[in-house]
Amino acid sequence: xxxxxxxxxxxxxxxxxxxxxxxxxxxxxxxxxxxxxxxxxxxxxxxxxxxxxxxxxxxxxxxxxxxxxxxxxxxxxxxxxxxxxxxxxxxxxxxxxxxxxxxxxxxxxxxxxxxxxxxxxxxxxxxxxxxxxxxxxxxxxxxxxxxxxxxxxxxxxxxxxxxxxxxxxxxxxxxxxxxxxxxxxxxxxxxxxxxxxxxxxxxxxxxxxxxxxxxxxxxxxxxxxxxxxxxxxxxxxxxxxxxxxxxxxxxxxxxxxxxxxxxxxxxxxxxxxxxxxxxxxxxxxxxxxxxxxxxxxxxxxxxxxxxxxxxxxxxxxx
Length: 318
Known about the structure:
Immunoglobulin-like; 1 helix; mainly beta; five-stranded antiparallel sheet; 3 domains; single chain
């Protein structure tokens, strides 16, 4: 009796272990025509999608399609919209088949005959597929440059793992961060071990300072932010910009014209005391916080050209 009970427990544990993961998509095929698919709301199926996964699927926890990205053009990826996906059917070979419905337009191949797609799937409780032992996305470069009314953003990732894509966020003046666009990952299934470069052009006629950051989002919805980059307003002149000046909240931003320079920066109070030093700064904008009322001097040394610059600003009483 004890041996049978132990054997039963081992079998249950084994089964639980086999299906404890949420497999991700390895490959896919799209077929025109609904075949055996049922009608939905009086609409016949446009076709079927068959997904091959990187692990076994629990018959009691078959994934569903959350969204699909068209990735044919790596620089212009977009979400496929106005498509309804049916429930998944587990096939004998371990693949999962879905019926899809486009409606009266009845476009085949998800609207792209020779297009490439990336599928985001989820399991019970909206658990997105998670690849084990992955590393986060590593940014190797991020720049923002203005040309008249256009701001060009460019960033490069050294590695990507489990990456869904990037939200581009912008902050104008003293406002709040706003999402202006989303760029899907170029990496196959969100994973890459080589450099990938992304670009985005923002139509921005703001006369004041604009700040940008990239919100990288994993397939499992975890996220992290890039460093912040700032650009001058349209037609805003000056080599280094200090704002706000005067400051009413103890926070002051310094914006440099040269986005690629390396600088040493010293912050000095009214008594001549150096209260903050930064060496080898490569970011084109910095923020001083928690400053008390007074007059401050910022000394800036460009390590590449030895050029020196002095800026002054005022912090009012709060």
